[in-house]
């Protein structure tokens, strides 16, 4: 296992990314996380105390209340691009591990100031040697892929609208109704995602 720390966190066009990096390995592990978890991590990184307990503060308070201590977290696995983590807790001398999302595990580890580890096979599969430019290039590649998909979908919608207009002008109302339904289906599908 590799001992790491939260090296950096930033917002890309695809979402928040936390970068985990160790002192003895040149590779870093970038993990996309949600906005709430990013906020929880950023508060600790910046030494800001929330006026009221946030979710991860509440979990820590509850664990402290029952005298259960977070010993370490491990980014333990990756399957089809999804990372998995485990919380290792000490409760009355008994060690237990609990499944967790990496983002939640990291937010808790930062509150406990406990070690963060990455399993070797996870770093071997997903670790990257990154510099600031490389990080931006990787995200630009992903954004380009997303943009191409969006452009293709939009051009498909534009084609449907053009066909609808033509069908109405040529008084092919049955075809126009079918095209209208396809446009509505497209809109529902793309607003849900």
Q: How are the SSEs ordered, and which strands pair?
A:
Elements (H helix, E strand, L loop, with lengths): L1 E11 L2 E7 L6 E6 L1 H11 L9 H11 L2 E12 L2 E10 L2 E7 L1 H11 L3 E3 L1 H7 L5 H38 L3 H20 L1
Parallel strand pairs: 4-7
Antiparallel strand pairs: 1-2, 1-7, 2-3, 4-5, 5-6
What is the count of distinct domains? Answer: 2
Number of strands: 7
Q: What's the CATH class label of the largest domain?
A: Alpha Beta
- The radius of gyration computed from the alpha-carbon positions, rounded to a whole number of angstroms, is 23 Å
Keywords:
Bifunctional nuclease domain, single chain, alpha+beta, 193 residues, elongated
Written overview of the protein:
This protein is an alpha+beta fold. The chain folds into two domains: 129 residues, Bifunctional nuclease domain, CATH 3.10.690; 52 residues. It contains six helices and seven strands, in the order βββααβββαβααα. The chain has a seven-stranded mixed beta sheet. The chain is elongated, with a radius of gyration of 23 Å. The two termini are 37 Å apart. The mean pLDDT is 84.
């Amino acid at each position: 296992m590799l001992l790491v720390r939260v090296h950096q966190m930033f917002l890309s066009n695809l979402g928040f990314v936390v970068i985990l990096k160790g002192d003895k390995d040149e590779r870093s592990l970038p993990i996309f996380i949600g906005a709430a978890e990013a906020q929880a991590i950023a508060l600790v990184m910046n030494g800001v105390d929330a006026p009221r307990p946030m979710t991860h503060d509440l979990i820590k308070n509850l664990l402290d209340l029952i005298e259960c201590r977070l010993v370490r977290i491990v980014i333990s696995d990756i399957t089809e691009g999804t990372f998995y983590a485990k919380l290792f807790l000490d409760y009355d001398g008994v060690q237990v591990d609990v499944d967790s999302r990496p983002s939640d595990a990291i937010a808790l580890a930062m509150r406990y100031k406990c070690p963060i580890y990455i399993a070797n096979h996870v770093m071997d599969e997903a670790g990257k040697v990154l510099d600031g430019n490389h990080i931006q290039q990787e995200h630009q590649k992903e954004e380009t892929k997303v943009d191409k998909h969006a452009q293709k979908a939009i051009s498909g919608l534009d084609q449907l609208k053009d066909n609808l207009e033509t069908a109405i002008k040529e008084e092919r109302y049955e075809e126009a109704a079918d095209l209208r339904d396809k446009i509505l289906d497209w809109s529902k599908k793309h607003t849900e995602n």
